[in-house]
Amino acid sequence: MDKSFSETYLNFDKVDWAKMQASTIDTLYMTVVSMIVVFVLGILLGLLLYSLGRKKSASYQILYNIVSIISNIFRSTPFMILMVLIIPFTKTLVGSMIGASAALPALILSAVPFYARLVEIAFREVSPGVLEAANAMGANYWQVIYKILIPESMPALVSGFTVTSVSMIGFTAMAGAIGAGGLGSLAWSEGFQLGNQTVTLVATVIMLLIVFIVQGLGDYFTQKLDKR
Fold first, then answer.
1. Closest to 175 in 3D by CA, of 74, 88, 82, 75
2. Which of 55, 125, 199, 221 could join 191 in a cystine, given CB atoms 3.0 to 4.6 angstroms apart?
3. What share of the chain is helix, strand, coil (3-state, %, to 5)?
């Protein structure tokens, strides 16, 4: 006899809430720690791409193409394949392939090039007239970056960071499928493999709530920073 919808998806007695809480903390840990690193490295890499792209000499264009190709390789490699490819590097860096910390290298390597491209695009959208005016007033390279480029592009930087963060939450679920922990791991091991659809549903709802909160905060700060 087939189970009813409520017996299949709403049988909350079959949910280990302590495990669900621990898995939620692991997912938040992977997302927050990786995104802090991604924000810093993404800004730096995006600035490098932007700066090299503005140079007209052949040597700078060659450097730009090299950095761009390397960035595109990591950005285009499917996350699950990237995790497998860097297993030796992860073991050396973290000491294990199991646990939330083991997912951080792959999460960071996959997201930094993606966010860096968004940063480069945001910098390119800053009005050239504003930059020329700053240069005419005697501002040096770093003053232009800190006082003009980053403030003017901040709404786009925050919006891009929000998009990257939402993608990162999805990546943590995939990382969980190969032992990284978090809600994805719980949904796979106790939900799918043991046929406990309630666990899968609850883990999915929690991840959706995290996504909605991140997206809502990102949209809020983007609107606050937008001067238009």
1. 82
2. 199
3. 85, 0, 15
pLDDT in tens, 134-187: 878 877 878 888 888 888 899 999 999 999 999 999 888 888 777 778 888 888
CA dist., res. 124 & res. 86, Å (int):
32
Which residue in this structure is represented by tokens 């932007």?
A: 50
Question: Which of 213, 215, 74, 76 is closest to 158 using CA atoms?
Answer: 215
Q: Indicate the pTM of the whole model.
A: 0.89
- Copy the structure tokens of residue 182: 């978090």
| Higher pLDDT pick, 181 / 201 | 201
Residue 9 in tokens:
């998806």
Number of other residues whose CB lies within 10 A of the CB of residue 225: 15
CA dist 169 → 33, 80, 145, 185, 210 (Å):
12, 14, 30, 13, 8
Q: Inform me whether the pLDDT recorded for 1 exceeds 50.
A: no
- Can you tell me which residue has the tokens 């899968």? 200
Which candidate, 209, 206, 211, 221, places its Cα nearest to that of 168? 211
